[in-house]
Amino acid sequence: MDATAEDTLRRALSEKQSAIDAQGSAVRALKDSKADQSQIDAAVDALNALKLDKSSIEKKLQAAVTGGSPSDGSLGREAFRHAVGNTLERRLFYIPSFKIYRGVAGLYDYGPPGCSVKSNVLSFWRQHFVLEENMLEVDCPCVTPEAVLKASGHVDKFTDLMVKDDYGNCYRADHLLKDFCNEKLQKDLTITAEKSKELKHVLAMLDDFSSEQLGAKIKEYGITAPDTKNPLSDPYPFNLMFQTSIGPSGLIRGYMRPETAQGIFVNFKDLYYYNGNKLPFAAAQIGQAFRNEISPRQGLLRVREFTLAEIEHFVDPEDKSHPKYPEVENLEFLMFPREEQMSGQSAKVIRLGDAVSKGIVNNETLGYFIGRVYLFLTRLGIDKERLRFRQHLANEMAHYAADCWDAEIECSYGWIECVGIADRSAYDLRAHTENSKVALVASEKFAEPKEVEKLVITPVKKELGLAFKADQRNIVEALEAMKEKEAIEMKSSLESKGEVEFFVCTLGKTMTIKKNMVSISKEKRKEHQRVFTPSVIEPSFGIGRIIYCLFEHCFYTRPSKAGDEQLNVFRFPPLVAPIKCTVFPLVQNKKYEEVATAISRSLTAAKISHKIDVTGTSIGKRYARTDELGVPFAITVDSTTSVTVRERDSKDQIRVNVEELAAVMRLVTEGQSTWADVWSRFPHHSAGSTEESDDRC
């Protein structure tokens, strides 16, 4: 239900409560005045009717804010989350790590079906991105020397805001505020529509809050420590990297990498040479990353070790077109541009080509990757109605970034950022060039020498240091990262006024820049080549988050044949299903078991993952067990020459000769044919009453 409908229900509830209060007063007045009993009875009936109306509105409002519907019997968010989580752990998709030692928060093990889903997701990622775009895949160490992460800014800036209570318990400040707002919105039906709007605005702007603003909101709402209910400290930054030492001396400081990208950036020079000194090109990496989360929670959504799949697409900053952009420009999907967020509107369906042409998305290459990410996620099985691309607000972005979008997937925890797609400009390569003294640049040779006019921005570091001291570095970086138009405007203001107000995003404040602090000029010179630092378009995929959202989007329940219980099903597409098919002899029979074993060999030869079950359990129970694992197809051996193939979600069955079974299974599991295709080609089979009569696990 949208915000407008929810606000309407809240207003209706408030009005109904006022009517109840007024009617209650009327009933008391009639009783006090010794009115006729028939009048009192009529007034009481009217009061009860109002209370029934209020109860109905409360149920509708509760359903609206928790994601369930009072009329369709669907689970609320928390009940749904519990059902999914219980099934995932019971069927060993994933479990807490080291649990016999009571485990450590934020660490999880993938079990056999979870490993298979993850492997299938990563395999498709390589196919969809690395192979399709002819990317250069690398594999870099997890342990990273401090110098690398000092240059990238992680040592100084990779922080979250933390608060403590009197006992030293630590909490992430923005999560406490987020939880408070969500709790109020979902469970306190008495708050007004105006208060609801205020809380939703806080949620929308949460990532934009400074430590002071965050602390002020925590105090304003009276938020205390969840465990002890004690007061909380003011928020302060906590660095999220795991520190270590490299070598026995302990003198070389290092960190477990918080992202995989830096390994690609520092190898740019060699990768550029490997690619024939040509742009654009992309490098990709799949690997583990580590973040010492303050308060890990929400299962796979916030953990301390996780898998990232990252792409760094290097491009000429003066030409961010993409030859394959026309392939995605007609895609339409939910987008949440910055302007809509600031004005309190909702995400809306936008044609990607329109977003790029109108400048909502900064450039074609960024737009191309947004489109490719959309196709990747929906092919995996993510519901397109619960997928949106949200543009970062201005203060969320680093000063050097040209544009940033997050692919957010809605699950029982709300909208979760799963993929970040950013135009990082040339910041990373410039930072490593400056700190390593190795030029990470590209070049374009001219057929004939060209006379070029270049805008040169030269911060006067001595004057900036005297004026701003510790802030000097941030101001220098911001000045050097200025776009040409911005620099020309600054030059004009400095010449006319002698000073100019300059906002530094990384400091979150405006500085007064004087004429003696920066030199901005245009110079003409003849050049045989153009040497430049490439820009980087970076799609970064949180694989664990994507997988968890996929689990929720694919989970549903259906009644058993007897109708006395709900059976759990994962509707994984064959592309990502942990097991592609199962093989069941209908009954324990030596001939049937021999046929099942032969089928298993043919499926193995065709590289189709499968499971064979020759137990005497009823076929209905075996179907139910494999449905709960998300197996899309079940092969039942009920003769020596042909078998039935059952599709998980429709439960429809076809009959296929044993000789052609492996080929048919390969077509449908690899996506070369759909179930509808094979349904139209093969004889249909009606399950006998004995076959699925007992489908309870």
From TrEMBL:
GO terms for molecular function: ATP binding; glycine-tRNA ligase activity; transferase activity. Keywords: Aminoacyl-tRNA synthetase, ATP-binding, Cytoplasm, Ligase, Nucleotide-binding, Protein biosynthesis, Transferase. Its EC number is 6.1.1.14. Homodimer. InterPro entries: aa-tRNA-synt_IIb, aa-tRNA-synth_II, aa-tRNA-synth_II/BPL/LPL, Anticodon-bd, Anticodon-bd_dom_sf, Gly-tRNA_synthase/POLG2, GlyRS-like_core, tRNA-synt_gly. It is an enzyme of class 6 (ligase). Residues 12-68 form the WHEP-TRS domain. GO terms for biological process: mitochondrial glycyl-tRNA aminoacylation. The keyword Transmembrane does not apply. It catalyses: tRNA(Gly) + glycine + ATP = glycyl-tRNA(Gly) + AMP + diphosphate. One of its GO terms (cellular component) is mitochondrion. Residues 218-559 form the Aminoacyl-transfer RNA synthetases class-II family profile domain. It is found in: Cytoplasm. CDD domains: GlyRS-like_core, GlyRS_anticodon, WHEPGMRS_RNA. This is glycine--tRNA ligase. It holds the Pfam family tRNA-synt_2b. Belongs to the class-II aminoacyl-tRNA synthetase family. It comes from Linum trigynum.
